[in-house]
Each structure stands twice: as structure tokens, then as C-alpha cells.
Design brief:
This protein is an all-alpha fold. It has one domain. α2 packs antiparallel against α3, α3 crosses α6 and α3 packs across α7. The chain is flat, with a radius of gyration of 18 Å. The chain starts with a helix and ends with a helix. The model has no long low-confidence stretch (mean pLDDT 80).
Length: 206
Amino acid sequence: MSGMSAFLSGATVGLAITMPIGPMSLLCIQRALGSGALAGFATGLGAATVLVLYTTCAILGLGPALAAAMKDSQVALSIMSAGLLLWLSARVLGRTISLAAPCTDSRGAVSSYCSAVACALFNPLTPVLLAAVLPVVAAPEPSAASTMIAGVFAASVGWWLIVSGGVAVLRARLSVTVLNLFNKASGLILGALGLLMAANAVQLRF
């Protein structure tokens, strides 16, 4: 596999996992609407970081071991994911958006990044999607593995940049009432996803 083929294969994997709407997409959009492009992009960057971590493990042949570990820890992961989603939901629902200048504070961006890493890391769907997508593309030669991982990261980061930037542009065109309605709806959906994760943990446990 050539370097370009490996990069494009990685980009395909990155987009296939990043583009579907899920908790991370919702969180990125909510933060970009509420706090601006930087907060939204930092959230997406956190998700991309975890995706690269899982991809690296899979390409290095650690996929079966990772899958076994995830299966053994599925209940604990579901509980942690549920708790994190419910916590994020409470924070979103307790916040009122204003039309002040978008947040450019680096500490806020770091906080958004770290919470996104935690959310993506404890999301049991990420490795499942990766396991479904990776076999579709050709396995890279050892020399091309890093190029494929770079493709995954570039495509994922590029997608989050487009989403956060586009939503931030939309933010400037919406009224504060509409922004707050979307904010509350996002919080409720995150809470519902958290409850579903909790219910899944109970079902797996009993």
C-alpha cells in the first residue's frame, strides 16, 4: 500500500466514524452554538484524539485484546459513560446562552477538550464502529501504518473544523431565544442518552 493510499484509507475510516450523528456530534454543535467555534473545535479535537488512540491499537494488532477488555468492562464503561453524559446534560441545562462575544479563553478550550476525551474514551460505541469499518479498508504495511493513522486524524479534525466553524457562523445569525431552545434540547438529548447507557448497564449486569 502506497503512502497516499494509506492516507486515503485512513481518511475514509476517520470520516466513516466521525460523521454519523452521536453524543460527540451533539456536544460539539452545542458548544459551538453556546460558546463559539473554539469550544466546539476543542470538543471535536478531543474526540479525534481518542479515535486515533483506538485506531493505533487496532492497526498494531491490539484489536482483539482491546475488544476483550472492552467486553469485560462493558458494564463499568456504560456506567461511566452514563454518568458523564448525565453530568454534561445537567451542565448544559443549567446554562443560559447570551449573545456576548464567543469565548476565546484557552482554559475553556482545554476544559472542553478534556471532557470530550473522557466522553469519547468511555463511549463503548467508538471501538465497535472502528471494528466494523477497519476490515473494509486494506490493512496497511508496517511502513504505512503511521500514514494511515495520520489520515484518520486529519479527516476527523477536518470534519470537526467544518462543523464547529459552520455552527459558529450560524450562531451569529440566530436569536438568543433560538440558541437557548437548542441548548435545552441538546441537554435533554444528552440526558436521554445517559439514561439509555444506564439502562444498558443494568441490562448487562442482570
